[in-house]
Design a protein that fits this description.
By secondary structure, this protein is α/β, with parallel strands linked by helices. It is built from 14 helices and 13 strands.
Length: about 350
């Protein structure tokens, strides 16, 4: 049973509203002012809050502010109750993060519809979204927009077609948005003072990039360049930040989506420090092989790009690939490198 916290200073309105909600099958906690309401929420976290704006001790704005700042309460759907004479102040509440409002006096159907709608949208956020499938990102953003009241996520996801070798951003550029690869591929690159290039990541369909500088609030530490013709979606920094700060459920989903990339980067650096040349090439081929859906698709990178991913000279890469080909581990075609025996490439005794 879902729990609703009702905060209302009018005894009559509080009792009548609580009765309606209870008859509809909800468990209702009531409070006659904002201070008591916050105390009850901290003791028993509600699934939704219905809160009057003008109240003694602590008004509705103060309650909402505490909810948005408290990690335990952040993200709980919030509906304001407001008298017609207070509607001019309603914008303030929506700016603070309220999800909806009802104007007093309201009908039973208005109340129950608003509650059902907000609870349904809150529970739309699932623990997993398959971003590799068409529509996966859109489903995630639609759900996140509904929960977060962030229309910018929907309004600003126009597809952007980019040509091969086009630069998305460069080292030192201000980070202004999160990028999602809808089709094609993008590489991230670090360059040494002498101009040598290390590819730190290859991002394909269903993957995000450009998130670390947004989280750390710093300029980009690498460059992003389109590997082959691609279509990207842009998510503005402000919407991304609000999504993380105001709605933990969405923030946790992003953390799960992005944590894997951080772990991959750490493994790449560890391998460059301690693995043999053959092991580094084998590990890189296996990673790209898995990103390319296994044996169905060849690894499509130029020799220079592949060498930059491994962190070795192109001549060393070519020599190692020739050895792998002679051993029957890979096949080199016009479409790229096809991994024939992934289990042998994984063997630890390289």
């Amino acid at each position: 049973m879902e729990t609703i916290l009702l905060i209302e200073d009018s005894d009559l309105i509080r009792e009548n509203t609580a009765e309606i909600l209870e008859l509809a099958g909800y468990e209702v906690l009531t409070a006659e002012n904002g201070k008591i309401g916050v105390e009850k929420a901290l003791a028993t976290k509600p699934d939704l809050v219905v809160c009057d704006i003008m109240m003694p001790v602590l008004d509705g704005y103060g309650v909402l502010h505490i909810f948005t700042q408290n990690p335990q309460l952040k993200g709980v759907p919030f509906i304001f109750l407001t008298a017609k004479t207070e509607r001019a102040d309603l914008r303030r509440g929506m700016d603070l993060g309220a999800d909806d409002y009802l104007t007093k006096p309201f009908e039973e159907t208005e109340l129950l519809s608003a509650v059902r709608s907000r609870l349904a949208r809150f529970h739309q956020l699932r623990p997993d979204y398959d971003l590799q499938q068409p529509g996966g990102l859109h489903q995630f953003l639609d759900d996140a927009t509904a929960v977060g009241h962030l229309t910018g996520l929907t309004a600003d996801r126009k597809p952007h077609a980019l040509r091969k070798k086009q630069e998305l951003y460069g080292e030192g550029d201000e980070a202004t948005r999160l990028y999602f690869v809808q089709s094609g591929r993008v590489k991230t690159v670090r360059r040494s003072a002498s101009g040598k290039e290390l590819i730190t990541g290859v991002y394909g369909p269903g993957e995000f990039l450009g998130y670390l500088p947004l989280l750390e609030q710093r300029p980009h530490a690498d460059s992003a360049v389109v590997l082959d013709d691609a279509v990207l979606l842009y998510i503005p920094q402000e919407d991304f930040t609000q999504l993380l700060h105001r709605h933990p459920a969405v923030g946790q989903q992003f953390v799960r989506l992005l944590a894997g990339r951080v772990n991959e980067r750490e493994e790449q650096l560890l391998g460059m420090a301690y693995d043999s040349l053959r092991r580094r090439v084998a590990t890189t081929l296996l990673r790209l092989h898995e990103q390319a859906n296994g044996a169905k698709v060849a690894v499509q990178l130029s020799r220079d790009d592949l060498a930059a991913v491994v962190g070795i000279a192109p001549e060393s890469l070519i020599r190692t690939l020739t050895e792998f080909k002679q051993d029957g581990l890979i096949e080199q075609t016009a479409q790229g490198i096809r991994v024939l025996q992934p289990d042998k490439l994984r063997q630890p005794n390289w």
